[in-house]
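Hi W.,

Here's what went into the run:
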Amino acid sequence: MLVSQNVRPEDLAMVLEDTTWAACRYQRGQSIYEEAESADYVYQVIEGAVRSCKTLADGRRQVGAFHLVGDIFGLESGQVYRFRTQAVDDTVIRRATRQGLEGDALAINRMLRLTTANLQQAEKHLLLLGRKNSGERVAAFLLEMDSRMTEARSIALPMTRADIADYLGLAIETVSRVLSTLHKEGVISVLGSDHRRIVIRDKGRLSELSAD
Amino acid sequence: MLVSQNVRPEDLAMVLEDTTWAACRYQRGQSIYEEAESADYVYQVIEGAVRSCKTLADGRRQVGAFHLVGDIFGLESGQVYRFRTQAVDDTVIRRATRQGLEGDALAINRMLRLTTANLQQAEKHLLLLGRKNSGERVAAFLLEMDSRMTEARSIALPMTRADIADYLGLAIETVSRVLSTLHKEGVISVLGSDHRRIVIRDKGRLSELSAD
DNA sequence: CGGGCTCTTGAACTAGCTCAACCGGAGTGG
DNA sequence: CCACTCCGGTTGAGCTAGTTCAAGAGCCCG
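Here's what came out:
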């Protein structure tokens, strides 16, 4: 699930500071690694966004997490990755070999903190998927994105409605309808020709609606 | 989420082997600790079962995980517990102070492995809650319980239908109906006056139904 | 200009929920 | 010992939130 939401940038950098880096560029939709692939690298998003997801045999998909600028992902303690991971948009990523991190007690401490943060986010998401209705899910999603993208006053969503739907366990039409309703009620504004830029007009109301 | 499903008993014991233990007894429904309480202890289930759960303001509940005999829970890297944790049934638990575990590189390594196992289980559960239907959820639950309780040939569920429902994100009636259907179709048998003992008659079929 | 995306909106459908009744076992008290 | 109640589980009937199916609009790109 590898969300680094609650980890300070300092921490993020620290985990990997002493290792050598290689920068990579991925186009939207391109896979960074596949589920069960040998977990040789750890990654950090420099630009763009990444999703990690699991898929059932018949194609149903669950997005486990989005990794935004600064987030670290691909950290495994087993031999293989537990997810498929793909670029949500054109994305720049840097990566370090995993060996650089092992054996070092300090690094392990940081890994533990990162993993715990990911676990915490996953647990929060379990509650959302198990017990919240569509309105609450979308409201919580917008607040999450707002808190993770510091960018002034508006959220530039890097992902499609389909990505959001698969993250929230909803149909894409439902996501669209809820956003329309929030817009009509004046809680948010939806801007841009692709409807991907969102301004939160009434954060208090959105918090109420998210049922946290 | 602290499920220790994929961790061998050796590992479990090792995490805490060198520390002093205190045994405790809890009656069904009794809280072991509350959400946001100071995380002073780490626990292991000796007998019975434990659930950890989050609750929304209006009472909706999500059970994040069940901890069965041998499982370790309450391992936090922050200052406070992230869950309320309660005895599912009359339960015996032992606990160690948290200090005994910190500073020791070996212990931290084990904690990292445990936390990763918990994260992995949580991720699996996200897919279940986000994308599986009621039949698939119940089938997956039965298989999970089967793999975690080695007990010969039948599963003695320690939890109520309400607990199962809140774990699977379903209504209690739905859980009951799915179990009845599985029974009628000969996939399982449901035994005992309280209907808590289950025999898996056709594991292959159950695997298919679980859609993993 | 045309084809392929993504997003939105409407209308019909359905999986699962809610509400309600009922059943059986365990505990309690007369 | 029986009567009563409580609690967990099952079953039925109706309802509804969210899905599915279908159509259309705007945008990008060759």
